[in-house]
Automatic annotation (TrEMBL), chains A, B:
PANTHER family: AMIDOHYDROLASE-RELATED DOMAIN-CONTAINING PROTEIN, AMINOHYDROLASE SSNA-RELATED. The keyword Signal applies. Keywords: Hydrolase, Signal. This is Amidohydrolase. GO terms for molecular function: hydrolase activity, acting on carbon-nitrogen (but not peptide) bonds. CDD domains: ATZ_TRZ_like. It comes from Vibrio hepatarius. Belongs to the metallo-dependent hydrolases superfamily. ATZ/TRZ family. InterPro entries: Amidohydro-rel, Metal-dep_hydrolase_composite, Metal_Hydrolase, MTA/SAH_deaminase.
Length: 469, 469
């Protein structure tokens, strides 16, 4: 496209119809100028007065201010010194659960005592769509351009992602007990296969299997999914090494193996896998994780909220494991932008390592961008601002008082920024949010529909006498 | 004032000049309606469809929707279901250090290796004013209505607080080595005394002493300040039981006493004291703290960032110690609204207690409001929405996607909110921020002046070859 346009411009100039100066300017779809560009490339190049050039859905150039002169565009975003960086990649969530957010947050054994029963009553196509719409808006406003989801009726989530214009890896849940969209694991696998068939060629959506966890599925199911995922070349997302309950159940099943070793022993630990949480992993587990090339989703905020512990994520990162940040679902995290994880990730790793130099900001930002892209095996497409990559770009306001001054952009992002500091969000070359206004969906209508659904939630929860607060 | 107005209205009605219906309406300065009111009173009363009535600088009524009909006002804030709560009280910061934010965040032994030398070169009246102006804006935008500050040239901070309209306890630093505004501790005490004399009758500013820490002052200085503070009836703010360095130095000086026991042994632990951090305290220390009626500032975010550890703040709270949240300074925290502490306070206490039910949201909110008021010995004036208290009130946006839905307002505030969710901030009955716009100061001018000063910082830091990043 760029080449064609250049040839056309040259041809027109040859006819004497345009002044020569415009020949030098290649016409592109979007130019971002006057930016502090954090490329997050291999060398972590920063352009203090930088430019990013986008054509179609791709980045065609990244560099300093001189670059801007070589291109022209009808859409120029002069960001006045703001930070421009790769879109955030949220490696683990359950987006539709926004409609349950702030319910019974601190109930012991909450998943089994509260969440599964709540879902049995309330999960439906409508609920999945309504919740996903709300969560998508929250993510775009918080600078998340790609997310990985595990839930039910993922074809409904897919429709919302398609509409808003985000990128996503969507995993259809497989679990051994009856759930809203399947009576058993086999039906879950069939649902997933149909979903995969439907979305396998979508440019922004990657369909996937999502076996809930090792202990909530049989060995046979996990093996079948591993085999199918390699055949279809789709990801498998799973909660792994998350809880003591899981650890005990798997040890019983496997003659004492850890969850990671068990998954390896049954042939389910491979490059298509993405394990969420990975708290209860030892050095041998990490060796297996690394060798398998599987991805890891690190969800600090949810893990400490549930008092489950702190994943050795820093150790994994330092050993080149494919690891990125995730928020977990909105009943767990409880927010969906990984910006609001940054502070906690940086600081809690310092605390547990008793070292204020541990987990410096640049590692946190790497885990939110390239690390997360690697965790989802998308590092060739997204995660950094480099020529040829898809144009998933965010702009962070450096005028908000909490962001003044910026001596070190990584420090400012990790220790000062919050999700509301995101000004613009671009996915696949398209501006989804500009100056905090959503351009592709009606935010008010989405919020109103979600609030309407909360009436159903309230009446169901109150009827059954379950905990609200 | 209210009584006078009622009498006047009755008198006028008696003359037949006004219709009778208006007689029922008492005219007040501000009415907040359609609010989810969290009073944070003793019973933690919540009005789901509530009203707050303000006249002059005081709250004259708090109740349900029926209350609104009894009053009239030229200023009615219909907040459309948003959360209305007491203004946040930040019990510990060094506001002027905003101009140094994001410098050398993770340098080991940072206070002595980096911050003290930096301050020796750059602290001045101008720096203090410029930094305080910026920090004040950040706090008002983040819902902080009262803060406690420890720094130099506190008379400059006082001028900025007076202008913006906030409430503050301002502690002039006393320290044994030469600093920008005093050559030694004695000069620091004299500076503080002059400052106290100048501001002792200010309605919103409480001047105070701020001996930096036990180990950076002599026993004689600490005793002299304790005595003077009781004579003048002003607070004493100090960094206490914060670091192992302090613990060792004090043990050397006192035949093995802990910092708290040492302060008690020299007669400096009393009801006027506010101790910041209080990480290294044992059960005996807590007993002394409780008995003394001193206040405690709990700065989770800064404490874990520096890997200093986690204060037993939950234990102190549960034992009725006067304890509230603080952010610490912007080189430490690095943000100044305690909203951005909530998540970390709730979750890190769960983590260290290995109990997801530990530190529930309502305790966090209590520590941000009434607890903080008690820590600063201001609980008769601020910290809750109750009749007769000063009208320090904030309104939190519940329409932002991260705040939807609100089944439990305490959960939503602690696990979902960020400082940008604050919509309106009212101090002393006056609206300082409305719909996120500052009404009493020029935010752009303040930011520009701060950015101008960063040039001085950059050149000084770079000249001296010190760490920037």
């Amino acid at each position: 496209m760029s080449l064609k346009r250049t040839l056309l411009a040259t041809a027109i100039a040859g006819l004497g119809l345009l002044p020569l100066s415009s020949v030098a300017n290649e016409k592109v779809d979007l130019i971002i100028t006057d930016a502090m560009v954090l490329t997050m490339n291999q060398d972590k190049t920063v352009y203090e007065n930088g430019t990013v050039i986008v054509d179609g859905n791709k980045i065609v150039a990244v560099g300093d201010s001189s670059l801007a002169k070589q291109y022209s565009s009808d859409t120029v975003l002069d960001v006045d010194g703001d930070i421009v960086m790769p879109g955030l990649i949220n490696t683990h969530t359950h987006v539709s659960m926004t409609v349950f957010r702030s319910l019974a947050d601190d109930v012991p054994d909450r998943l089994h005592r509260y969440i599964f029963p709540l879902e049995a009553k309330l999960v439906s196509r409508d609920m999945v769509r309504i919740g996903a719409n709300l969560g998508n808006v929250e993510m775009v406003k918080g600078g998340v351009t790609t997310y990985a989801d595990m839930y039910y009726f993922e074809d409904e989530v897919a429709k919302t992602v398609d509409k808003i214009g985000m990128r996503a890896v969507l995993g259809e849940t497989v679990i051994k007990f009856p759930v809203a969209d399947a009576a058993n694991a086999e039906e879950g696998i069939q649902y997933a296969l149909n979903f995969i068939e439907q979305y396998k060629d979508h440019s922004r959506i990657t369909p996937a299997f999502a076996p809930h966890a090792p202990y909530t599925n049989t060995t046979e199911t996990l093996q079948k999914i591993a085999k199918l995922s390699l055949e279809k070349d789709v990801p498998v997302m799973i909660h792994l090494a998350e809880s003591h309950r899981e650890q005990e159940k798997i040890a019983e099943r496997s003659d004492g193996l850890s969850p990671v070793k068990y998954m390896d022993s049954i042939g389910a630990l491979n490059k298509n896998l993405v394990g969420a949480h990975m708290i209860l992993v030892d050095d041998e587990d990490i060796e297996l994780v690394k060798k398998s090339q599987m991805g890891v989703a690190h969800n600090m905020s949810a893990n400490i909220k549930s008092a489950k512990g702190v994943s050795p994520a820093l150790k994994m990162y330092d050993q080149d494991v494919r690891i990125g940040l995730g928020t977990d679902g909105p009943m767990s995290g409880n927010t969906l932008s990984t910006i609001d994880e940054f502070n906690q990730v940086a600081k809690v790793h310092k605390l547990v390592n008793q070292d204020r130099a541990a987990m410096p900001p640049i590692k946190v930002i790497d885990m939110a961008t390239m690390g997360a892209a690697k965790a989802l095996h998308m590092e060739d497409k997204v995660g950094s601002l480099e020529v040829g990559k898809l144009a998933d770009i965010i702009v962070i306001d450096t005028k908000a008082p909490n962001m003044v001054p910026v001596y070190n952009p990584y420090s400012a992002l990790v220790y000062s920024a919050n999700s509301a500091n995101v000004r613009h969000t671009i996915v696949d070359g398209k501006i989804l949010m500009k100056d905090r206004n959503m351009l592709t969906v009606d935010e008010d209508a989405i919020r109103k529909e979600a609030l309407e659904f909360t009436k159903v939630v309230r009446s169901t929860v109150i009827e059954s006498g379950e905990v609200v607060q």
